User: What shape does this take?
Amino acid sequence: MHLSDGVLTMPVVTVTTVVAGSLIAYSLKTLKQEDIPKISLMTATFFVLSLISIPIGPSSVHPLLCGLLGIMLGWQSPVAIFISLLLQALLFQHGGLTTLGANTLLVSVPAILCYYFFFHFNKNKKMSQTVISGLSGLIGVLLAVLILIATLFITSSYFSEGSLSVIKLLVIGHIPLLFIETLLTAFIINILVKVRPELILRKI
Amino acid sequence: MGKSFISEIKNIDPKLTPSSWGASWEVRSKLITCVLICFGIITLQTPQIILTSFILFFVLTISMGFRFIFIISKLILLVPFLLFMTVPILFANGLAIDQERINFVINLNGKVLTSALVMMILTLSQPLSKLLQALSHLRIPSSIVAILMLALHFVKIFLQTIASYQKSLRARGFQPSARTNSLKVYSGVMAGLLLRNIDNADKVHLAMTARGFNGTIPTSPIQKFTKTDFIKSASLLVCMMILILIEKWWV
Assistant: This one.
């Protein structure tokens, strides 16, 4: 899910950097000084959790956790995601500097939408909490893949050409993650609500 | 899982000697120069110019004192990503590959690899702590720098925690897979780590406040910006500008 430097064209890089910058600036506005240790810990936790590889056949996938991040951090998630991606670029050269904006948007926008989705449906009590959490995880990955596809499509038509184009391969590659992320988010939120309900339910 | 990343983090401190021109380069000017160069690289459109820039930065990294094998080992990490991007584009119309498609693929690979070299110059020519210190002396919101520094500290601790979790799971006969039962175990581990850290966050905040934390992480004074640093930054930026100008007017 990391776009490296050099994949996106200058106009796409400019737009995504400006939009991501605005999102982070707004996110920083909601941040209080006492939140800094919490956000740092959560950033580190999500950074480490996203490194856990889950084997699927000969390959493996890493969870994105944007649904979970959105539910836990809400509007503060773009800052956590930005820092997490910056660390990945600095430590492992995953991603890049010019694509930092695009990569931040890929995860932040789904995270914020998942936050609204989860708390809207949880408030109405129309569905069970486990289903809503699972759906948040599913929507998170779906949206992230959609934004990634849109970004690549705008960059060049080469990414979408052919019966096995880069975009098609990306979609196929993320199908297992849809299933995994749905279950993981549902299970994790379930545990958190059972052990520390105030962490999740205080926001409703 | 975590182990390879722990060793990766340990390797983050470079093997460059302090006398290397890359290691002695003032970090703020290096940071700004490398970011500008990365943006310059993505504006390039011609395969010859992109290849020239790749050779230029390869020679520069070698001249800094990075070992040839080390550079190649870092670039090889990008191969799966590049193959994933290159093969479907090249063979989108079967074996009939047109020149435009080849140029696009060369450009893509060249830009990715050149940017990776620039990132290597930026991140691996001094300890990461120095880079973060330089960030704190730039006009970046202090909260971002504080979160970045604290997060990096916690990442190092959590990676070891995750590695020990993995060890104990294996000792109990856990077979990692994408099956529901396995995912339940994964989510148990993840939720456990989250809960533990949420509790720790409050303690950390209290401890930091008690030590006078006001939203800014204090850092030691930054290295002085000298004439030599200006020459290093200016020469690299001029090289990049020359490449862009050659492409605009002569190619």
